[in-house]
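Module 6 notes. Inverse folding takes a fixed backbone as the condition and produces residue identities as the prediction. Think of it as a translation problem where the source language is geometry and the target language is the twenty amino acids. Below is one complete input and output pair. Work through it position by position during the lab.
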């Protein structure tokens, strides 16, 4: 099966940490990052979360970056509505996946921005698919990001953002904090 076969690398219990001096605000900035080679599912998952962080500032730029990360499939109207439903007024959700972001500090991550992406023994159901995980400072369990490999290029593209369910409210918004 190769590196990303049924058992994944190292038995499917691997983590990779990515560090960004700044989060991309536009497609050109995202494409300039070394991870934009998309030659591993870990890189693509990290970039997807980084791109989502700009949602409340520039929704169109986020969709453009996600379009690049989705490869041959465009961002559908359904996906845009799904993201809008989960991030409008809750932009802190995407930031919560970066190191140092907790409900107590209103999900303000440490700078430089650092995110860890992990797999598990079930992450690779077949050769061209992967479900990797990111951990939010406001959730009790890791959240999935589904990816698909394009065999002709070896690149991994975003397939589905399954990581955007609700998390604990930031302390600054919680009347009971």
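Target side of the pair, the amino acids:
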């Amino acid at each position: 099966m190769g590196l990303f076969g049924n058992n994944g690398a190292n038995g499917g219990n691997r983590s990779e940490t990515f560090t960004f001096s700044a989060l991309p605000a536009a497609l050109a900035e995202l494409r300039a990052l070394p991870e934009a080679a998309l030659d591993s599912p870990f890189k693509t998952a990290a970039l997807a979360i980084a791109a989502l962080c700009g949602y409340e500032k520039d929704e169109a730029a986020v969709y453009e970056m996600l379009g690049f990360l989705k490869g041959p499939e465009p961002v559908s109207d359904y996906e845009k509505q799904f993201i809008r439903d989960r991030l409008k007024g809750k932009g802190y959700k995407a930031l919560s996946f970066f190191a140092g972001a907790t409900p107590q500090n209103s999900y303000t991550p440490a700078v430089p921005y650092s995110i860890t992406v992990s797999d598990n023994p079930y992450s690779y159901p077949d050769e061209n698919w992967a479900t990797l995980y990111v951990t939010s400072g406001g959730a009790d369990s890791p959240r999935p990001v589904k990816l698909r490999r394009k065999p002709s290029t070896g690149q991994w593209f975003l397939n589905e953002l399954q990581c955007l369910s609700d998390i604990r409210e930031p302390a600054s918004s919680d009347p009971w904090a």
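Reference fact for the lab report: Helices lie at 27-31, 41-52, 59-70, 77-87, 92-95.
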